[in-house]
Amino acid sequence: MNRWATTLLEIMRDAWKQNLTLAVLLVFASTLYADDNRTLRVFIFAGQSNMVGADSKVHDIKRFPPFVGLEDPQPGVRFSYCLGRESKSTSEGWVDLQPVNNVVGPELSFARRVTQTISAPIAIIKVAAGGTHLGGDWNPDEPSGFKMYPLALQWVREALADLEQQGIEYRLEGFMWHQGENDMFNPDYMENYGRNLKNFLASWRRDLNATDLRFYIGELCTKTIWGMDLRPRMYAISLGQKEVADNDTLAQYVPTSHVGVEIGGGVGLHYHYGTLGQLEHGVNYADAYLRNIGTLKAESRPLNAWPYAEGSTVKLFVLAGHRNMEGERAFVQELAKLEDHSELLQDNQHIAYKYSIGGGFKVSDGWEPLAPAGFYDTFGPELSFGAALQNRGVSNIAIAKFTHSGSQIIDWTPDGSEAKSRNLYQAFIAFVQESIRDLKAKGHHVELAGIFYHLGENDMSWGPFRKEAPERLTSFVTQSRKDLGLTFLKWYISQQPPTDDKSVNGIDVTAELEQAVATDEHLIHIKVFDLPEQEQQLVIDTRGIVWLGETIARKYLELP
Fold it and tell me: According to CATH, what is the number of the domain 313-558?
């Protein structure tokens, strides 16, 4: 029994002797639990390929400034692992946390984030294997295939027993689970994912004698190709996961669709997070845990003073879109090194900025000064867009940004898709309406200067979605004007070079967009085809995002 449990029993005995109430006891207990900085906190990481770290590379970590240094061991963080299927990589007892087999797992960034925030020591036990099912391999009752459940249970028990033999006090703190892609290929496993997951959680709590073990269930990433061509199946798995999280007070659904995804060959789409996504994936788990224990620091970036004169007209610019409007690969550390652009890092107190990014994963606290506000030290084209307008004498600017990098164009249409939880249209319209109301409530006239939408990047890489892009975009624009009551609302559609691959080049999406624009004088097509040279398809880097903001601002200024 660890020191925490022993001390809790002592408190309970004293409470009984002194006739203290249960409420007082719980206050004492929770305070002790939160302030316990000696007991080792043990986390279990388990799942399939996106938990292993498939298609990630340690040498790529240096490409992503917020995560530099995670290629090195983290002394003081204990690590026990068993990874793989037929051929397994295993630790010999406990070792320092470090990459295994040149692969980046979410535990690396998780550990750094947590240890930078709390004083207690932590340890990670990881058992994961690609291509494994919850319905079979991980089934606690009838494990099949690689029999992952009994293997993982034995590994965890032995790792914990090792701690006990060393006289190390510990407590099980959380179970991070990322799995489900393979179950969607088996109709029975897919249909019963929620039921199987409920049993999985109950079995671990029973077999580890840990009735209060908290689970963190990672969302399957909708930004991968499977989020497009297997959309209904991905949705079915998500329903099962959410059902468990909704009905289990110690289970939490952790969104991950906004994280980076590896850029593959050919059309660029991939099945795995890759290096950047894995590192961001770990931060998601860490933040969910830190929020639960009340130690996640809230960000605050208030406007020093309301920047607009009372009763004046405010020009509201709405920015919307997917991964590049969000700024997936634009980092503040690189912005600081860009000549003549480092000033964009400073809070612009003259432009009020409101945002909902990652499909609501991060939302501003009302209106903030325009400044970098993305997750993982990222930013979008709004910074250079606002600065470019200001530099040309446009005043009384407000910017509202609504993005979800894990979305496709169909998610923004009024009808949406069968994956109903991914539909964004109503939330987007409500966001615009709320932004207008906020400004009017402050006594301003509001001119909605336009909606600036950067066309879905992933849609350009898969034939069926590329073919439907112009029609879906048109339905989005048309219905938004009706719902906002602005018949002649201007839409500015920026389009980066569409994916260049023989599998999709037969669909001339640019020509079809031009045809749609030709019939609508208030729909402006901005071809951003002369971007600074980019390293990879689909994603735009720091320099390119700055350039994109300046380009769409210039197009606005050129038109009457």
Answer: 3.40.50.1110
Residue written as tokens 């979605």? 465
At position 106, the amino acid (one-letter code) is P
The residues with which 81 forms a beta bridge, in sequence order, are 126
Q: What are phi and psi of 370, to 5 degrees?
A: -60, 120
Q: Classify domain 41-292 at the CATH topology level.
A: Rossmann fold (3.40.50)
Q: What three-state secondary structure class fits 541?
A: strand
Give dist(CA 25, CA 10) in Å, integer.
11
Tell me if 538 sits within 8 A of 547, measured CB to CB: no
Whether 8 has a pLDDT exceeding 80, the answer reads: no
As a whole number of angstroms, the distance between CA 143 and CA 331 comes to 44
For residue 490, give Cα distances in angstroms to 13, 187, 525.
Answer: 70, 46, 11
Same fold across 41-292 and 313-558: yes
> Is residue 210 within 8 Å of 175, Cβ to Cβ?
no
Reported as a pLDDT band with limits 50, 70 and 90, residue 3 is: very low
Residue-wise pLDDT for 404-457, tens only, equals 999 999 999 999 999 999 999 999 999 999 999 999 999 999 999 999 999 999
Torsion region of 346: left, alpha or beta (phi above 0 gives left; psi -120 to 50 gives alpha) = beta
321 C-beta neighbours (distance < 10 Å), count: 25
| Cβ atoms 392, 382 nearer than 8 A | no
Q: How far apart, in whole angstroms, are the C-alpha atoms of residue 25 and residue 430?
A: 45
Give residue 553's Cα distance to chain centre.
28
What is the C-alpha separation between 322 and 258, in angstroms, rounded?
9
Q: Read off the pLDDT band of 298 (50, 70, 90).
A: confident
CA distances from 439 to 311, 354, 398, 446, 447 (A): 10, 11, 9, 7, 10
**Distance, CA of 484 to CA of 425 (rounded, Å):** 12
Question: H/E/C letters for each residue in 475-528?
Answer: HHHHHHHHHHCCCCCCEEEEECCCCCCCCCCCCCHHHHHHHHHHCCCCEEEEEC
**Domain definitions of the chain by residue range:** 1-36, 41-292, 313-558
User: Sign of dihedral through CA atoms 358, 364, 369, 375?
Assistant: negative
